[in-house]
Structures are given as C-alpha cells and as structure tokens.
C-alpha cells in the first residue's frame, strides 16, 4: 500500500521534494505524542512534522475550535474584519516584546520571511541583506537567496545581494576552537570587516538556533553583540523564530531572548507550531517599519478564521499549561539522558540543544568528518523501533534532530531515548 503510494508520488510530484526513509511512511492519524501509519504501525513522534505539532496531535481544544469555526464559515478574505485574527494579533504583539508592534499574518514561514525582506528593503531602500552561514529561511526566490545552507538553496540567482556572516554554527568552522567570549569577538570582527566593504545594508536575518542547519548553538549574547554593530549602521535585525518560538527552547519564549541585552528585534517572523498543524505564519514589526509600505498589500489566505481559531486555542493551551516550563524540564532531562547515552559512542561528536530542541551530530569514528550515512541509518533504525526523528546539518546532513510536541511526558522522553539508544548502537 505504502509502496504504491510512493510510486504514484514520484510519478506526479517533483524529484526535489524531500522524503524521509527508503520506504516512505504514510501517516494517517495521530493522538498526543503518537502517530500511526497506513500499515497500522504506531510511532512516538519526536519530530512533530518539523515542529509544526507544537502542543499535541489531535489536541481536543484545537480540533474543537477548528470544527466550530469551519461550521460557521471557513474563509472570506482579509478585506472584511475577522475577530479571531485581531485577537491573535493582539496576543502575539504583546508576547513579541517589540514595542508598538504590528502583526501581519501569512500562510507559511517562507512567506513571513519574504514579507520581512520586503519591509526591511523598502524601509532601508536597499537590497543588501546580511544572513548567517548555514541558515535556512524558506523556499521562495528571495528566501533561498538568504539561505546559507546550500543543500537547501537551489539557485545562486537572487533579487537580493546577500552577505554571509559567521556565528550561526559554533561547533565547526574557523572559530570552533574558541571559548564563548572569544567566539563572539571573532564573529563581531567578521561582521565589522564585512560592513567595511558595503554601503547600505538593510537588515540582518538570523535564526537564534539554526533549525535545518542542525540545531546549532551560538553562545548567549552573540546577537546582543551584533546588535551594537547593527545599531551603529542603522541596520535592522530580523529574528526568524519559525523553529525557536513559542517556548520550545524552555528558558525563553523566543530564541532572541537568550541574547537579552540585545533588546527586542525590529522584525520577528514566526510560523510552524502556532497553528498546531494549521498553516499560519507571520511577521511582527514595530509600527514604523511595518507601515513603511506605501501601496496596498494582502495575503488572501493569511489570517483565515479557521487557522486563527486554531492559533488562539493552541496558544491559550500552551500558556495555561506552561508548556515552556515543560520544555525546560522534560527537555532538560531528555538532553541529559541523550548525553549519557552518547558519551561512549565514537560515532557521536556532540549532543547539543535547549529545551525540546536537541541535536546529535554524527561523525566517522576517530575523525571530525560528517557521517550522513550513519545519520540516515539511525533514522531508519529509530523508525523500525517505533520512533520518528528528524535530521539536518549542512550539505552532509549528519545531525539527528529531536523536537517533540511540547506536551512530552518524562515517560515518553525515557521511552524515545531508549529507542534512540538502540538505533545508535546499530551503526
Ligand atoms: N525559517 C525557518 C527557520 C524554517 O525552519 C523554515 C522551515 N523549515 C522556514 C523558515 C520556512 O517555513 P515554511 O516551510 O513554512 O515556508
């Protein structure tokens, strides 16, 4: 059954559409932290559809809100008022930390980043953008133009002039041997040097922790140090919180808050988890930046009542159940457990992460070389054992990614870690 669907998929969808597993899995339903495939196999979900299932699969509160709204009206357009959209915007504006914030809803992270680029380039009258090496920001023409991870950037053509900065990845590259403050100093020097050769940069866009890039871990304070330099040049700071937002990192609601002295960003983009699977993305910006466009703009489906109802119900659940606190507690235990499991494994170079966002970087034993074959094999073995995880990294995709729904229990964390341990022992 699954095989036939795979063949049909290949016959009609693009070859470049990334698919996991030699025998791709067809998920048919889910509940809590579990999903089931078309053959009836049950999996513990440690990837949540790349962090889209923020709270839990089939969370009754979200399902009910969606069904009720769909029963009334699914969509008209943002040409008319929509109560849910205004309410969700009010809550996100308040949570963003950005003063006098305005919110614009899109349908994806890509469209959110595209909009942020439109705003920043218009505001600064410049198409020069600073982006981080190894970054991922989406798949539109402008988003791939600021994506430093070349495994996900299929064209070198771009409407933007992009300059890539060091700092997103700490474990590899020329500054890997440096301690926190020296690393920050070196990255700041690199940024200053780059700016010495440019005229009028619009913005820096950065993921606080790179997601697709392999859950990297820049030291706290890096973006505060960058911010000082950016401010001197009048350059805007866009934080891409598509993976790091909504409390996933445990210590903070947004990833940028780990760099607190930076103060809030000028623009913040979000997507993925807020709709718990419904397509919501968006941009938050201070009013002056958001309102710099002097012509009309609209997203036909951005802010649709059904997705907004899902977002409101999901956000309410997240806050009422302190899922950020759960990410900190259960995520902390999980990372500790993964470190213990991996301590003696020569195939593991590093276990890193924050909250419920953990990465395990694999290498060829005895070397520093990436080991994408081992990562692929562990992914397969974990699936055999009943666990779905993700992978990422640079071109060589050798980092296992763990990012379960934020309601994960301690027992489920233990169960997943044990399956992962067995999977790691197969390579
Ligand atoms: N930014 C980041 C940090 C992402 O991880 C992603 C998706 N992986 C995107 C943007 C693009 O989001 P979408 O796939 O919803 O367009």
From TrEMBL:
It holds the Pfam family Aminotran_3. The keyword Transferase applies. Its EC number is 2.6.1.44. GO terms for molecular function: transaminase activity. Keywords: Aminotransferase, Pyridoxal phosphate, Transferase. Its cofactor is pyridoxal 5'-phosphate. It comes from the Bacteria. Belongs to the class-III pyridoxal-phosphate-dependent aminotransferase family. Homotetramer. This is alanine--glyoxylate transaminase.
């Amino acid at each position: 059954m699954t095989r036939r669907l795979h063949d049909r998929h290949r016959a009609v969808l693009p070859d470049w559409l990334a698919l996991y597993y030699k025998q791709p899995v067809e998920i048919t339903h889910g509940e809590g932290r579990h999903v089931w495939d078309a053959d009836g196999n049950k999996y513990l979900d440690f990837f949540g559809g790349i962090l889209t299932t923020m709270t839990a699969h089939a969370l009754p509160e979200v399902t009910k809100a969606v069904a009720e709204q769909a029963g009334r009206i699914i969509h008209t357009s943002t040409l008319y008022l929509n109560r849910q959209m205004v309410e969700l915007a009010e809550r996100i504006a308040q949570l963003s930390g950005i003063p006098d914030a305005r919110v614009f809803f899109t349908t994806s992270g890509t469209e959110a980043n595209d909009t942020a680029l439109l705003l920043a380039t218009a505001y600064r009258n410049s198409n020069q953008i600073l982006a981080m090496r190894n970054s991922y920001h989406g798949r539109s023409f402008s988003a791939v133009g600021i994506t430093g991870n070349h495994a996900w950037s299929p064209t070198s053509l771009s409407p933007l002039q992009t300059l890539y900065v060091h700092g997103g990845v700490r474990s590899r590259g020329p500054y890997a041997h440096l301690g926190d403050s020296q690393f920050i100093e070196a990255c700041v020097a690199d940024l200053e040097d780059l700016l010495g050769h440019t005229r009028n940069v619009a913005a820096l866009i950065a993921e606080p922790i790179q997601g697709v890039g392999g859950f990297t871990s820049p030291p706290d304070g890096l973006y505060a140090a960058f911010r000082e330099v950016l401010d001197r040049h009048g350059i805007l700071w866009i934080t891409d919180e598509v993976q790091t937002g909504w409390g996933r990192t445990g210590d903070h609601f947004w990833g940028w808050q780990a760099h607190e002295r930076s103060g809030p960003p000028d623009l913040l983009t979000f997507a993925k988890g807020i709709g718990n699977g419904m397509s919501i993305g968006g941009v938050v910006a201070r009013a002056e930046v958001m309102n710099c466009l002097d012509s009309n703009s609209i997203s036909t489906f951005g802010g649709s009542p059904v997705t907004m109802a899902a977002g409101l119900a999901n956000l309410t659940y997240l806050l009422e159940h302190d899922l950020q606190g759960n990410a900190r507690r259960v995520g902390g235990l999980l990372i500790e457990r993964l470190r213990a499991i991996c301590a003696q494994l020569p195939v593991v170079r590093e276990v890193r992460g924050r909250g419920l966002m953990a990465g395990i970087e694999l290498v060829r034993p005895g070397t520093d070389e990436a080991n994408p074959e081992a990562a692929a094999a562990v992914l397969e073995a974990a699936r055999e054992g009943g666990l779905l995880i993700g992978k990422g990294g640079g071109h060589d995709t050798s980092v296992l990614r763990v990012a379960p729904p934020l309601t994960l229990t301690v027992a489920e964390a233990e169960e997943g870690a044990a399956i992962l341990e067995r999977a790691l022992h197969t390579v």
